[in-house]
Write a structure and sequence with these properties.
Shape: elongated
Largest sheet: 4 strands, antiparallel
Distance between the termini: 57 Å
Radius of gyration: 27 Å
Keywords: DNA-binding
Structural class: alpha+beta
Helix content: 40-55%
Order of helices and strands: EEEEEEHHHHHH
Number of helices: 6
GO molecular function: DNA binding
Oligomer: single chain
Protein name: Jerky protein homolog
Subcellular location: Nucleus
Organism: Sipha flava (yellow sugarcane aphid)
């Protein structure tokens, strides 16, 4: 069912249906009273599941600049940038880390702030250089060879 439809979709219990009104899903109940269905008023669905929006580093910097210049609340930031209030509060709280990442990496498309480090970082670099050198010589490399 698309959002423009005015058709009803009956839910499994047979008592409720969903309808799109002004691009919002609404539902109503048909309770029974002495065997007759009674229609109740439309009530908007409150808990519509949405995924968390992941901001790029550039968008985070814009949010923090706007916060510093305008000195607005987290709710205002959340509404302006299309994110949740908790996410806006977390960005404000971690602004030092975000600014440090911006200065060190400058990668504007980066969407994560956690950079995982391995215990064997130097070994990984040496193996990667060896891998690139042998592949340049057209030497076939497989998993067991890498394990050796």
């Amino acid at each position: 069912m698309s959002r423009g439809d005015s058709d009803f979709k009956y839910l499994p219990d047979g008592l409720s249906f969903i309808k799109w009104i002004d691009n919002k899903a609404v539902f109503t109940l048909f309770p029974t009273f002495m065997g007759q269905k009674l229609q109740m008023k439309y009530v908007p669905i409150i808990s519509m599941v949405s995924k968390r929006k992941h901001l790029t580093l550039t968008e985070r910097i814009k949010l923090l600049d706007f916060y510093q210049k305008e000195n607005v609340s987290a709710r205002t930031l959340a509404d302006k940038f299309g994110i949740g209030r908790t996410q806006a509060t977390d960005l404000i709280k971690n602004r030092g880390t975000i600014l440090k990442l911006w200065k060190s990496h400058g990668n504007d498309q980066m969407k994560t702030t956690k950079r995982r480090k391995t215990e064997s970082g130097n070994i990984n670099e040496v193996i990667y250089e060896w891998f690139c050198a042998d592949r340049a010589k057209n030497i076939p490399i497989s998993g067991p060879i890498l394990k050796e």
